[in-house]
Amino acid sequence: MTTTDFGFQQVDERDKARRVRGVFDSVASRYDVMNDLMSMGLHRAWKAYTVMVADARPGQQVHDIAGGTGDLSLAFARKVGASGRVVHTDINETMLRTGRDRLLDEGVALPTLVCDAERLPFATGSFDLVSVAFGLRNMTHKDIALAEMCRVLRPGGRLLVLEFSRVARPLQPAYDWYSFRVLPRLGQAVAGDADSYRYLAESIRMHPDQDTLKAMMKQAGFGHVDYHNLTGGVVALHVGIKCQ
Ligand SMILES: C[S@@+](CC[C@H](N)C(=O)[O-])C[C@H]1O[C@@H](n2cnc3c(N)ncnc32)[C@H](O)[C@@H]1O
Question: Is 79 exposed, middle or buried (0-12, 13-18, 19+ CB in 10 A)?
Answer without folding.
Answer: middle
